[in-house]
Amino acid sequence: MDPAALAEDLQKALLGVLQASSQDSGRQNPLAGYLLHRLRSRLPPYLWPHLQREAPVPGLAREKSWDVGLVYPGGPELPPKPRLLLSLKSILRNPSGSWPNRLDDLVGEVSSVQMLFPEVVVGYVVVLDYGAPTKRKGVEQYPEGDELAPLYDRFKAGLKALSQRQPPLWAQGLVEGYWAIEVDTRKNPLLRDPLRTAQEGEGFLDALVEALRQREPLLFLGQGQ
Question: pTM for the whole thing?
Answer without folding.
Answer: 0.93
